[in-house]
Amino acid sequence: MSNNHFKKGELYSFITGKASIAIARRLQKRFNTSGLNITIEQWSVLYHLWKQDGLSQQQLCNATFRDKPSITRLVDNLEKLNLVKRVPSEHDRRINLIFLTKNAQKLEEETMQIADDTLNEALRSVPPDRIEVCKEVLQIVYDNLK
Amino acid sequence: MSNNHFKKGELYSFITGKASIAIARRLQKRFNTSGLNITIEQWSVLYHLWKQDGLSQQQLCNATFRDKPSITRLVDNLEKLNLVKRVPSEHDRRINLIFLTKNAQKLEEETMQIADDTLNEALRSVPPDRIEVCKEVLQIVYDNLK
DNA sequence: TTTGATTAGTTGCACAAACAACTATATGTC
DNA sequence: GACATATAGTTGTTTGTGCAACTAATCAAA
After folding, report:
1. Nearest residue to B3 (alpha-carbon basis) of A123, A60, A83
2. How confident is the model at residue B17 (pLDDT cuts 50, 70, 90)?
3. ipTM of the assembly?
4. What radius of gyration, in Å, describes the C-alpha atoms of chain B?
5. A126 to chain B: which residues are within 8 Å by CB?
6. Which end of chain A is more exposed for a tag (fewer CB within 10 A), N or C?
7. How far apart are CA A81 and CA B80, in angstroms?
8. B131-142: pLDDT as tens digits
């Protein structure tokens, strides 16, 4: 029999990550209703470039927890939207460095505010110490599996 | 400025649901290495049919937190794999009832054991009371947004 | 009983993810 | 320098998701 801490229904809920799916959908809706024409996956790439511009695609793979083909296509679509630009590295011609355009720079403040609001809405009525425990557990789960 | 409980890097981690992505990937790998030729999305549909066979597609939408086109296509692929069968309802001809085949019935025990093992691995070294807090927080997040 | 609204399911399209196979460049060893 | 190996990125294929538009069946109200 099961020796973990999940009943049947809870097991499904935990594996499928209902909570994070709900957060992602809400964030996407808020982007859409704000007239922001980007997906949350595209936003997640921009997010890391706002922290540090000019990352390579491989660095974006590590940062976003995605594989190389996924990043290739996300960068493709971001280039189509004129939000980033591939610049071949001078030192290593295998490498593309990804730079934000001015359009993308304009998006940072607004989208971060929306993300912040969405998280606040999601965590409404949850005491800070319980949020802290939750974050720590999820970090351990990630470390256990990565 | 931000008035929630997340630093920048944590915000990304929470929104993208790194922990549940890690669990899903690990489970998929275990299915693959066990020679089980199904995706975790297909498994999530079977999961609810094992609990109650003969659900409608709409009921599967609610249970799996997916929209109707997603379920249509998952059922399409499960039918191709000979794991489920669509049976039109006699009382309401709009409705398809989805029934497990014998092949799918055989999969229940093995896949549930794998899912159980995967969760135990993910939660290794996490005390039960902290798991409980985490579950409750994620449930509130879901309820806040649904 | 006809009309209008609702519900269940399907289809088309764009975007994304996982995997495998591929090209091109760089590196390390003989 | 030549060769094997590793690394960065691309492309093709299958599967899944979200949205909008659609069909078919049911229900409700006049």
Report:
1. A123
2. confident
3. 0.88
4. 18
5. 137, 140-141
6. N
7. 38
8. 999 999 999 999
Domains in chain A: boundaries: 8-145
pLDDT tens digit string along B98-137?
999 999 999 999 999 999 999 999 999 999 999 999 999 9
**In whole angstroms, what separates CA B74 from the centre of its chain?**
12
Residues 6+ apart with CB under 8 A from B111: B31, B36, B38, B43, B46
Nearest Cα of chain B lies from the Cα of A133 at a distance, in angstroms, of: 7
| Residue of A119, A132, A136, A139 to mutate, testing the B interface (most B Cβ within 10 Å of its Cβ) | A119
B24 shares contact with chain A (CB less than 8 Å): yes
- CA diameter of chain A: 58
CATH dotted code for A8-145:
1.10.10.10
- Let me know if domain B8-116 sits in CATH 1.10.10.10: yes
Cite the DSSP H helix spans in chain A.
8-16, 18-33, 40-51, 57-64, 68-80, 102-122, 128-145
Does A112 score more than 80 pLDDT?
A: yes
